[in-house]
Amino acid sequence: MKTFRDPVHNIVSIDKQSEKVLLDLIDTREFQRLRHTRQLGLSSFTYPGAEHTRFMHSLGVVHLTKRFIDKISTLKNIDQKYIDELHDNRMLALVTALLHDIGHGPFSHALEKTTKIKHESWTIEIITGDTEVKKILEYHRSGFSHEVAEVIRRTHKSKAIVKLLSSQLDTDRIDYLIRDSKFTGAGYGAFDLEWLINCLRIGEVNGDTEFGLDLNKGLSIAEDFVMARYYMYVNVYFHRATRSAELIMDKIFQRAIELNNLGKIDLPEDLAEIIIKSSTSKTLTNYLNLSENTIWHYIVLWSKHEDNIMSDLCTRLLNRKLFKEIQIEGNLIDFTEKVINSLKEHGLPREYYLLTDEATSSSYKDHYITQKPKSEGSENEKEASEQIFLFDKSGNGIELSNKSKIINQIRNEGIKIDRMFIPEQIRRLF
């Protein structure tokens, strides 16, 4: 038995014989790079403890996936077909849990905006392309890489496995909420994991397989789980200092590309290849070569660049001299014009020194009464479930907001925070 000591789940065990494929995948180059990819990007600018990695998170999701399957397997008074389906696809679920985030790169969101390629596309390419990961998957079973990709795309025939890893109540979401809460030191994301697992149920709702919670025992933990997600977005993921740092990183990439086009700066070769070719299949090796250490190295070099904008932005990020949020007063158009004029007087181009941020998310949606949004992914991808169901003794699923006044009140009300950031010396003028 291979044992990992995890700050969140304590002991995470993987059997060296029956689960050998997991250990082989962990040892691949593609997975080991996740040790150098932080789960929360630049959130450590706000919460110094937020240094945990996607490597740790991925192991945590494997651990929770095992616990979910084991719990469902012990339930009485449920259709045996669900237990059989989970048992037959157990290794598929564990492998997908391990690899679900393997496509994330350094400073994922800023990099995605720069390259115009979503991390999900890189994930699929790593699983199905010319990689160590694919070789191991195919050695385990012919066609296995395609199956794993299908689960990630949410198109696999096993709806139970898809929902286990991608739904409102999935093992990925549960792990990152608890893990992010612990490492940031913010208590907002904490909830009773043990009781949630104890209340787990599975059943059919409108012809679709759904994981849910026991109606009599699970209402409170379902509410806690949704509210934990809500508060983590408001207070951690959308924190103004974190968002300011992310926006500056985005502007650094933008300026680097402009200067590169003018022949005035050298981009990291791997990043340049990705931007020029804009293809996962042609640039996968380049993508895998990138790391946060690589990017930070260039930011240090660029902080001494002769271009004043580039050197200033990089120096600000290195020294945490972030742009500050400014409270909008009066008419938005008039106020924005006033800010732009102040920037001009100080020789600061608005394109790089007036940063606008629209942070949006939703802690809970009920698509029975709202229009389902179009997927940002492939046409072959399906949307993740956005409801939590409570199952009664007869196996009937009741949508959470129909039983909870709290959830009913916030249902379909997304989080939307609009902000404007400017340098501190300009903000002091207002």
UniProtKB/TrEMBL annotation:
Domain annotation HD/PDEase: ranges: 50-186
GO molecular function: dGTPase activity
Pfam families on file: HD, HD_assoc_2
One example of a Gene Ontology biological process annotation: dGTP catabolic process
Alphabetical list of InterPro entries matching this protein: dGTPase-like, HD/PDEase_dom, HD_assoc_2, HD_domain
PANTHER family referenced in this protein's UniProt entry, alphabetically: DEOXYNUCLEOSIDE TRIPHOSPHATE TRIPHOSPHOHYDROLASE (PTHR11373), DEOXYNUCLEOSIDE TRIPHOSPHATE TRIPHOSPHOHYDROLASE SAMHD1 (PTHR11373:SF4)
Protein's recorded name: HD/PDEase domain-containing protein
Source taxonomy: Bacteria, Bacillati, Bacillota, Clostridia, Eubacteriales
